[in-house]
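Supplementary Methods S3. Complex input for the adenosine-5'-diphosphate-bound model.
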Amino acid sequence: MRIVFVASEVFPFAKTGGLADVCGTLPLELERLGHEVSIIMPGYRCTDGRHQPFNAHAGVTTIGKDLKVYFLRHPGFYDRSELYGDAAGDYPDNIDRFAFLCHETLRFLKGLGTPVDIIHCHDWQTGLIPALLKENYAGDPFFARTRSILTIHNLAYQGVFPKEDMSRLGIDGKLFNPGALEFYEKINFLKGGIVFADHITAVSPQYAREIQTREWGCGLEGVIRQNKERLAGILNGLDYMHWDPSTDIFLDPPYTDGGLQAKAIHKGKLQQALRLPVVDDIPVFGFVGRLCYQKGLDLLESAFDDLMKRPLQAVFMGVGEEKYQKLLVKLAKKYSQQCGAIIRYDESFSHMVYAGSDFFLMPSIYEPCGLTQMISLRYGTIPLVTAVGGLADTVTDFSREEARGNGFIMSAHSVEGLLEAVDRALGVFSRQELFNGLRIHAMACRWTWESSARHYIECYEKCLRSA
Ligand code: ADP
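Predicted complex, serialized as structure tokens:
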């Protein structure tokens, strides 16, 4: 099959979260399984110098065996310090920036001259593509056999704009109706993608179920339920080559499940870097993530005084909303002997947090898939999570009696639920043999991209059969 990925961020070129990890890894796995894959993304300031000129409108580079990544150029739209917005909020012209990505992708593909089977769109930024294929390119022989698939990585981000902007989309104004792009009198890119894509996926089976409910559907549950025959939940994998404590270039020394004592060295380094007391018998609870509502930071704030009465240290690493950045700095100041905060995006330091922590905090309100719990498991760092979305699909509650579990699940998203799970975690930490057994089991858990890629291939084939 000839498959094109279109995404607003792709690791290692541009990344703010898990979307980039998926779009940087899944295409490589599909190529490894014998498919012809390419990627199209914006050519941002941060991708400058990472590609050669391809034509007047695009740059190109090759990854994997022969996987071309095309960077669509538009200096006015993409030559900026951030991908989506700055401290003042989202860039006001995001509607134009991503409508351009959608239009230009299809023009660019036509220009390449070889028809593709599947255009795999990701999140709202590419949500207009399925609509353009069905509307602007209906009857165009070049795309006659092309099918589109939309993956929802996070339903909370929908690309919503005022209806007055409809004329800027380059698509027939009649599509501003509740059966197409309109959502409560506004333009909604993601809804357009859901309605017009030939197939829809969500990034975990549990999330695919949750987004059909009022509680988690972010208003789109009705549209999703109407289209559920075309919806599948496919769990993301983890890139186990990249995330491997035995070969990790950011870790000195590397370690395996047979040499867990090396984790103590990383723990010491982490404590030192954050000016925390360097002690091994107090567990470190780490956190790495975007600082936003979704990640459960408000709950951590409510529980923090109680948490700090316990024998533990907390290490936070992240960037995001100003109020959460300030909160973490404030907590680290108030509890300087027990809490540290690193407010920046730093790939190499994140590896230190995964390796140097004993537990990984993930009290998310919702979590479409979540990669950080998979990463922490791989590093022998035990996740403590809410049972939502992909967390429910990957973390099982530890029970010594029933000899099961790779983490700790909060019984509820509440202060009591969090403290109860922390107390159980502390109980296991205090029994070294038990804790080591849990770590070894955690490190052996696998969610491979090969397995996810095979599920995606089934979806692609299903779409093509209907062609
Ligand atoms: P989301 O997609 O909601 O952002 P995921 O858990 O799916 O969350 O993926 C987050 C990814 O971003 C992980 O690879 C994580 O290591 C990385 N990450 C998040 N914040 C930072 C940071 N401040 N520095 C380095 N890496 C980060």
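The chain has two domains: 2-237+449-465, 261-443. The first helix runs from residue 18 to 32.
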